[in-house]
Amino acid sequence: MATEILMPALSPTMEEGTLAKWLVKEGDEITSGMIMAEIETDKATMEFEAVDEGTMGKILIAEGTDGVKVNTPIAVLLEEGEDASAVPDSAPASTPAPAEAVASAPAPAQAKAPVPIVDAPPAEDEIPAGTEMKSTTVREALRDAMAEEMRRDDTVYLMGEEVAEYQGAYKVSQGMLEEFGTRRVIDTPITEHGFAGIATGSSFAGLRPIVEFMTFNFAMQAIDHIINSAAKTLYMSGGQMGAPIVFRGTNGAAARVGAQHSHDYASWYAQVPGLKVVMPYSAADAKGLLKSAIRDPNPVVFLENEILYGRSFDVPVMEDFTIPFGKAKIWREGSDVTIVSFGIGMQYALEAADKLAEDGISAEVVDLRTLRPMDTDTVVRSVMKTNRCVTVEEGFPVCSIGGHISSVLMQQAFDYLDAPVINCTGKDVPMPYAANLEKHALLTTADVIGAVKSVTYR
Amino acid sequence: MAVRKTSKKPNVSKDELLAFYREMLLIRRFEEKAGQLYGMGLIGGFCHLYIGQEAIVVGLEAAADEGDKRITSYRDHGHMLACGMDPKGVMAELTGRSGGYSGGKGGSMHMFSKEKHFYGGHGIVGAQVPLGAGLAFADKYLGNDRVSFAYFGDGAANQGQIYETFNMASLWKLPVIFVIENNQYAMGTSLQRASSSPELWTRGAAFGIPGESVDGMDVLAVKEAGEKAIAHCRAGKGPYILEMKTYRYRGHSMSDPAKYRTRDEVQKVRDERDAIEHVRELLLQGKHATEEDLKAIDKDIKVIVNEAAEFAKESPEPALEELWTDIYAEA
Q1: Which range marks the domain in which residue A235 is found?
Q2: Where is the Dehydrogenase E1 component domain (chain B) (predicted)?
């Protein structure tokens, strides 16, 4: 049967083109791969190759014709033994219906986001009453979480710079090489891009890596694998294959280490679908959330803080203590204002709440703990009670976590707000080195107190 | 066309030659059909065809064993067909339909098959190389006697992460074969214009990784080199580099007018080095098959490819609810 040759789309955006030149004439033998014509698209002049074999029966569109719509028949190819008389004299009056896929493009407006991930009642205490508590540093809590999970599951391993023989650049992995050996606690060369990729690849094939970045500033070298390789694979594979992996390490400012070692990446990672993002404050949360992160079948970015590593908190003595993602924690209840924070920001939030209480202002302090999924429901419920909100974070002001919370409150609690939400953030400058300038760039408890006084009109 | 001297007196059975012919032809016809569907607007976005390079994946798959893993870039259709993935599922992914390997969410550049140990389909040039070393890391960690193939092009061979990976793969003796598909053009930039040293197979020397240059248009030479590399890996000696000298007949992607090379250059390779013609000659000269036999194979392949195209056109588009699935695995 004669085959119609259609005007091809030769770029992702081409709708019509010019049939610049025919390189074959009627009666020519056509073989697969032969260049039949030159076609000008919206971008370039392209050669148009034959796919089917046969004899050129009829050229329907003359060379030099402009504005030939994609899928218009431009020629007819005859099979062995066919006669040109079988071909109609002119092009069919109407172009064939465009391919169905184009015609029935779905109406995107119908797509609706599912209900928010989190719609739980206020976080109840994960720790049963009467549980024995032990004072533990954040550093020890993180180590205990990794060691417990490695005892539980042989596929969990720790990889990173100085994690093994040096016992961790910040001593988080102290003792782990001794317990688990070189197979499971692996020192890497200083090649973040490469080892993040290797670890991600191993997670595709059944392992559960914990990748320690000495700091998330260095993870900038590896961010392609965190986002393009780890976060997107489950979706791109239609659910066949994902990356159960934890990327952890210090994040944000330490002290006097300059602009390249002080960046807070909370809002960067929180923006990416496919990632889960955790930024704990207390040792108990660090432990319970890291254990959940290691068990999670998805890639988790776990943002720690060098200044908090040495801080001690009560950690429950329990066989298996985990904290679910997406549940904020209310550290203190209050009635006049809601202060929302996470990570080291909580230190300023809690200090401010103490001082504000002395002035008779009752602040409710909410620790988000996980930034993706983010428990905005708890924030909204709190603001419906207090009618005012201040957000606190160390990162930069533009496109911050606080900016997102403000937007959620506008949409879900607009009528409850008695004052504009204020976002307390780090200053919008690269971190300076000079002691006085650095102090000025960082968030302070006084900033939080000032913001609360402003929203409470005191 | 003369039988090339690279594969001396070919030590290959009739059945194997016929299988090579069939598999390479399947890839070529599939890709031609994909190009045609792209022209009809049924395939969108980027579509990178493998035409010309078929001998590489077919030869290496013939050397591999069940359970060996493979990962590649966005020019991935050939790899998927060669490792036994269903042409229907691949074509339906190209048309963005629910019957595609990724349910329409991945497209030409992003397909996977756990069953066939195919780990994608990656769109960031070079990123699949550390990922591939990671697959090998997992096998070594778990004590599996498997090897992984990490395919990349001459363009990717200049990415920094390749060398980070070479270092760790050699340091940790990972059973990974780095397959450099040198088709001589990184999009529109020729190897000579982009690489200070064009001998890509020597790029592992600084890390103690052995390598060799292979005629990537000769499926027999490819298989032989693959067997050697696999034996090296399985013996616990660490990674191996195979530089496959090949050629891509089509543009970098469908929208590439390929003005950076002459039509004669392409035609010369087609006439003198074509991988399928090579096997065809071997079959005919060795009296392993007649013209009629080969015509029958051509016909079979045409049916398979047409069925795949039909399936890809008729498979429904994904349901709108699918927009919101597979973002997170159930914890």
Answers
A1: 133-316
A2: 23-320
Q: Evaluate if residue A418 carries a pLDDT over 60.
A: yes
Question: pTM for this one?
Answer: 0.90
Per DSSP, the three-state class of A50 is coil
- A11:B113 CB<8 A: no
| Percent of chain B with pLDDT strictly greater than 70 | 97
Q: Which residue out of B71, B115, B124, B131 would a mutagenesis test of the A interface target, given it has the greatest number of A Cβ atoms within 10 Å?
A: B131
Q: Which chain A residue's Cα is nearest to B104?
A: A238
Take residue B316 and report the two structure tokens written for it.
Answer: 């429904």
Domains identified in chain A, total number:
3
ipTM: 0.95
Q: Select from A285, A316, A347 the last residue of a domain.
A: A316
A33 pLDDT band, cuts 50/70/90, is confident
Confidence at A94, pLDDT banded by 50, 70, 90: very low
For every residue of A261-309, DSSP letters joined together read G----HHHHHT-TT-EEE---SHHHHHHHHHHHHH-SS-EEEEE-HHHH
The two tokens of residue B66 are 């069940």
**Strand, coil or helix: A184:** helix
Kindly state whether residues A270 and A188 are assigned to the same domain: yes
The mean predicted confidence, pLDDT, of chain A is 91
Is residue A110, in this structure, part of any structural domain at all?
no
Q: Is A388 exposed, middle or buried (0-12, 13-18, 19+ CB in 10 A)?
A: buried
Which of A35, A42, A237 to probe the B interface (max B CBs under 10 A)?
A237
**Residue A222 is assigned to a structural domain of this protein:** yes
Q: How far is A203 from chain B (nearest CA, A)?
A: 8
Q: Quick one: pLDDT band at residue A42, thresholds 50, 70, 90?
A: confident
Domain closes at, from A264, A291, A316: A316
Q: Which domains occur in chain B, in start order?
A: 5-315 (3.40.50.970)
- Residue A39 clears pLDDT 50, i.e. is over it: yes
**Token duo for residue A78:** 């005859």
Do B329 and A242 lie within an 8 Å CB cutoff?
Answer: yes
CATH (domain of A183): 3.40.50.970
Give the other-Cβ count within 10 Å of A79's Cβ: 13
Active site residue A148: no
| Structure tokens that stand for A431 in this block | 């971190």
- Same-domain pairing of A79 and A146: no
Q: Which of A140, A148, A261, A304 is catalytic?
A: A261
Give the confidence band of A93 by pLDDT, cuts at 50, 70, 90.
Answer: very low
Give A92's pLDDT tier (boundaries 50, 70, 90). Answer: very low
- For residue A54, the domain's CATH number is 2.40.50.100
In a domain, A302, yes or no: yes
Q: How far apart are CA A300 and CA A373, in angstroms?
A: 11
Is the pLDDT reported for residue A96 higher than 90?
no
| Pairwise CB contact (< 8 Å): B326 & A32 | no
Question: Which of these, B20, B24, B76, B32, lies nearest to B306 by C-alpha position?
Answer: B32
List, in sequence order, every beta strand (DSSP E) within B53-193.
69-72, 118-121, 148-153, 176-182, 185-186, 189-190
Asked if residue A376 belongs to a domain, the reply is: yes
Q: Do B257 and A46 count as a contact with CB atoms less than 8 A apart?
A: yes
Alpha helices by DSSP H, A15-121: 100-103
Q: Is A224 on the interface with B (CB under 8 A)?
A: yes
Are B89 and B108 within 8 A, CB to CB?
no
Instruction: Select which of A192, A212, A304, A393 is catalytic.
Output: A192
Write out the H or E segment, with its range, that includes residue A198: helix A192-204
Instruction: Name the residue among A11, A111, A233 with its Cβ closest to that of B255.
Output: A11
Closest residue in A to B266 (Cα–Cα) = A33
- Cβ pair A198:B134 closer than 8 A: yes
